[in-house]
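U., I forgot to send this yesterday:
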Amino acid sequence: VRDQLVEEVDGIAERASRLLRDQLEACGFDGEALARRAVEICVDRKATDIILFDVRGESLMTDFCLVCSGNSEPQIRAIAGHLEETLGEAGVRPAHVDGVASSRWMVIDYGTLLVHVFHPELRRYYQLEKLLGEERILVSEAMTPKPEVDPVTG
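Result:
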């Protein structure tokens, strides 16, 4: 019975994955193009410490994992909302969204791409980057804003 259940779950996961890949292709994206577009969208909302991991062949859940930070609940909400809205306009909808801004961690699941939007404190606690591995980094954007310099006083 256990083996039959495992086989059935695997079949459901494979069909769901195929549907999401078909949706992406219909919208003109492949997994990597979607992931790179998501990085741009996060930059638009001033996400910090953006890292895109290529986990193809290493993860059963996804091909790409994007980790970024928002410095407040409103910013976390803005990053996640802008991502859903902008990709939605292109016809790409998430399979699932987990968490709310007040939880200080949101996950948006696009099948081939998982996006984690963290509050920096929670991100330091979970250290997801260590789990994913530095060797899998595809894009790393140190987007931490620099202090503004007064042009007169320097």
